[in-house]
Predict the 3D structure of the following.
Amino acid sequence: MIKNLLSTIILFFFYMVVSAQSSYTIATNGSTNLFLPDTIECLLGDTIHFDLDGDHDAKEVSKSTWMANSIAPGTGFYFSSVSIGGSGKGTIVVDSVRYHYFVCTPHIGLNPPMKGVIIVNSPKIYGCTDSLATNYNSLATIDDSSCTYCTLDSTFSSDVSCDSLIWDGST
């Protein structure tokens, strides 16, 4: 039992270190009509900064609005550059696994249209995902074939520790 508790604590610490948040910046340039980059793939908890200049903004829209190269309706964040009345800055912390579609409202009609997407994924944690295994990891999202199971070894040739089995009259 103590081994399982210690393993869980170590795995949790490892998860926290591995899943440290990242930060990304989406910028514009007054002389080009592009978001740089126009696509970001990130993980839950990551931070996305917008740095807008020129006559640019970033308006979150639905997928259908984004696909149609349109501007309405807005579904979330809106940031604009100083020249069109905003601060030129904006930040979001992604808190759900989904796509964030965004457009530049003054330049969505250009060819190519000025738009971008943020793809939010959940972190991949490798480990044993079988709750019946002795080394089950409740945080694991991908099974790595490391599961071990309590087996009855009638020859007693291996040292297997299982809380639910009685070995020679003792647990």
